[in-house]
Amino acid sequence: MTTPAVSSRDLPHPMREEIRLEGVLHALSDPMRLRIVRELAADGEELSCSHFDLPVTKSTTTHHFRVLREAGVIRQVYRGTAKMNGLRRDDLDDLFPGLLDALLAAAGRQAVRLRDA
User: Fold this and answer.
1) Which CATH number characterizes residue 41's domain?
2) pLDDT digits over 39-54, tens only?
3) How far is CA 63 from CA 28, 72, 89, in A?
4) Which of 6, 56, 81, 92 could form a Cys-Cys staple with 10, CB 3.0–4.6 A?
């Protein structure tokens, strides 16, 4: 069962055992969401929503973060007025060993290929 929100500033996240492979793959199938995850993985720390400079509207950016959170790919928490985002690497690696690393490596190779084309 999804963790209920305690207040309007607490965001619901799926428990580890609720994270489904098809949900993770769906969340990562969008180029903008994959870009967010690549940046989080490269940095290794929590990043605020404002850190990401995506070529989409603010409402679309919010949608992308919500899809990632609801799929269990990221964890979002408020720190003061900033909404911070962290990759749920431990959960994903425990549930689907090697998946995240394989997807990130493939996305990196694709980015190089497209840049060089």
Assistant:
1) 1.10.10.10
2) 999 998 999 998 999 9
3) 13, 14, 21
4) 6
When mean pLDDT is compared across 3-12, 16-25, 71-80, 92-101, the lowest value belongs to: 3-12
Domain annotation covers residue 8 = no
How is the beta sheet containing 74-79 ordered, strand by strand? Answer: 47-48, 82-87, 74-79
* Full residue range of the structural domain in which residue 94 is found: 16-106
- What is the DSSP annotation of 45-82? S-EEGGG---SS-HHHHHHHHHHHHHHTSEEEEEETTE
